[in-house]
């Protein structure tokens, strides 16, 4: 094990020194002995050359079978982006450790996204359709998939870039992505801006989506409830999520909300407020969100000692 660590360090040092001859020697001698490990060392050397900006080593390794894999590095400096994009590497390559393209990886960086799109990044190239919702990873690739990735990670400006280059809002479920993977601890203002932008583009935060034919359709609010994410439930309610649109069933309340007193009480209070002030509810949700004869949700009994 110590030998492998020493060899890895020696390869890194050769790249740092720009010593291609030494690097080739280290990789060739390891290749004859270690097989799969040698291939990983070659890929690590390629990515380290990209980070330090050594064009000759990067292009040599790329032409000799090394694979670009962003998940082997922690960050990518600006000069490295230029080297990567100008190297002739196919930017629509699916990276082995993740099954994703470079566009998917750098969706939060507007400059990189712009550069990739200008150079022909394919919005359908990612092989993990709907992988942001792991339960539904077998749904076919569609240009809307990148919309959902951007919804919980990117900015409105990046969203507009994607749409301008062919990403489709129709049939996408960005609010479900926000509900399941949005990180409110990483700055709620960013998610707030994206949700408002999507609503301005005509997306409905109360849209229920059926991921599989045999499954019930869920709203983004119900998705957050299933995840028992009370902060996301609050966030969605603040942005117009209507608990009566999806019709939270008694079964859902018992199975999911029952043990969570705080979450149940929040939804009950929200519903009471809506019922006591229908004008306010109509202002929030429009006439379509106001049932003619609203029925109370049958919540389970709660143990206040929990």
Automatic annotation (TrEMBL):
InterPro entries hit by this protein: Ankyrin_rpt, Ankyrin_rpt-contain_sf
Pfam families (alphabetical): Ank
Keyword vocabulary terms for this entry: ANK repeat, Repeat
Statement: the UniProt record of this protein carries the keyword Lipoprotein: no
Ranges occupied by ANK repeats: 216-242
Location of region: Disordered: 286-306
Keyword check for Cell cycle: no
Superkingdom classification of source: Eukaryota
Protein's name according to its UniProt entry: Ankyrin
Organism name: Ramalina farinacea
